[in-house]
Design goal:
single chain, 0% strand, 76% helix, 58 residues, 2 helices
């Protein structure tokens, strides 16, 4: 699609959405390659640590 002065607001929104999706995909792929743990894994680790602290107190 060639960028011209006759682009509508809808055309610009589609381009913006596609660019956002492309950038988000690149970011997500980079995070996966770095093996960044997801929130649920961090929460499980936190809960396990909390459980072991409570167990040590008793």
């Amino acid at each position: 699609m060639a960028i011209t002065t006759s682009m509508t607001r809808e055309d610009l929104m589609i381009l913006a959405q596609n660019e956002y999706a492309r950038q988000l995909c690149k970011f997500t792929e980079a995070q996966l390659k770095r093996k960044v743990p997801c929130y649920t894994e961090q929460q499980k680790i936190g809960m396990a640590t909390l459980s072991s602290v409570k167990a040590a107190q008793h």
